[in-house]
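Suppose a colleague, Dr. K., hands you the sequence of a protein chain of 422 amino acids and asks what its three-dimensional shape might be. Before reaching for any lab equipment, you can write down a predicted structure in token form. Begin with the sequence itself:
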Amino acid sequence: MSSVASLLRRLEAERIGVAHLQFTDLMGSVKTVAIPASRLPDVLDRGVGFDGSSVEGFAREEESDMRLVPDLATACMWRPEFGGRALRIICDVVLPDGVPFAGDPRRILARALERARASGVPPMTVSAELEFFLLPQGEGAENAHLGDPARYFDAPSSDIAARCLRSMAKGLAEAGVPVTQIHHEAAPHQYEIDLAALSPLRAADALVTAKLVIRREAARFGFTASFMPKPFTDHPGSGLHLTFAPPGETADVPRWAAFAAGILAHACGLSAVANPTVNSYKRLGGSEAPGFVAWSDRHPAPYLRAVGNAWEWRAPDASANPYLALACALAAGADGIEQALPLPNRLDERPEMWSEEQRFLRHVAALPETLRDALDALEQDDCLQAALGDHAMRHFLEAKRLEWSAYARTVHVWEREQYLTL
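The predicted structure, expressed as tokens, is then:
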């Protein structure tokens, strides 16, 4: 209770009268319930009710009553998009009787962590490289490649972009998200912010928070921050590279190898949660994004990259819900350890230059080429289905099948340019 008391004293001293309680829906969108700070002691004790039927992938009307239970360890001072400062706390979702809600993405990750430990997955931290585009507002997407000659590791090409990035770094620090570096990426207006290593649950919390802060600060400086995986045909897309590492300098090498083998074995099903949009598959297989299931320490775009004792998972993009992506990766790695899967041979060549027969003979599989293919793979993967649970699996597949169907029925500009005069 002393931490609660000290938090309340700070709120009073800094005249902060509002607390924002946040959680994500199944697709990773952040939802917020604002309460008067004076209600915080009661809410920390009892939670606060909300209508789950109004949240994507949560519940139907007949089972709508749910409660938010704040995780005080995530409390931080917060600057909302509009107005003054507030307190922000990330919450877990429970049913009226206090039982954790099976469809809460944060709970799905916590459950996956419990199962991973029981399966012998070694302790780990997760660090993240979050790529995004910082686009001037009011400028058409087709012109976004103009006005920024900077490329990989160049200094920002304008003072306002530099000030915006500094403001992002400050905002992330205020929100308790540790940043290791910020730099320009390969495409015009593209940047990367690297987040320090944290436990898997805290890493997912940090990613959700980072996207909010980046968008907020971008808007303050007249930019739109886009985490779209592949917004421009002729430029590299944006990824979310996640690195799994032992907390110290030493590692249980055989178990880490089996963990990596498990992720490789479930790569196609993992695509559905790590690359969950139609647009995600226009990034995969590009010049800097993996298109095949392989690992290396020297290939320019492997699915997994060996970095010392760590493994960098290079396939995900920031359209993913980080709680679900990490939960499924942990489940895949745990399966690799349980089955003592051998790590395939390292890949140093470029399989896209091989024939299909050569890839088959060398056991190098291609990643799914469309969201529909990835969803099909997920439906065939019992391990990942168990990690998600029946509720989340059912709602996720339903929403994503509808997304694919809408895309497939839509007539796009390219089609008119190619076929209108037939």
